Amino acid sequence: MKTELRRLAEQLERALEGEAWHGPSLLEVLEGVSAHQAAAHPIAGAHSIWELVLHLSSDYGLILRRLGGDGRQLTKSEAWPTVPESNAENWNESVRLLKQLYVELRRAIESFPRERLDEPLVPEPSYTAYTQFIGVTQHQAYHAGQMALLKKALGSLSGTTARGA
What SS3 class is residue 120? Predict the structure, then answer.
């Protein structure tokens, strides 16, 4: 029988890696996206794919920070880091960091004390651990949907169909 913590970690995994019921996982959406495409703004006023990847990394970091007892909110620059120079090396590093923080967060969720799920991680904000664990997964799915739309927009601008979106 799966524990509630295992189920939470599994939902985070599905939303990032695959077999998500809602559609393509985040990594499935990112498949085939170049640094140039990731940095592009095909929809006026919308974030780029790269900006969203960095934002999700900061979100994972926020929950990890709260798990460590640090309740500070993210600053604007932490929540929305600046995209580095647009090249393949920097893009690959941004995706690698996202995956690394995901692994750390998943392990932290799986090893979290079950009896503390209904308690806040830190005094402020007073969201329970459960709410934060499921919330980070929902947040990831929300932005994966945005990335899928951005990828489609990129495909329509170039006259090709964006694969996986």
Answer: strand
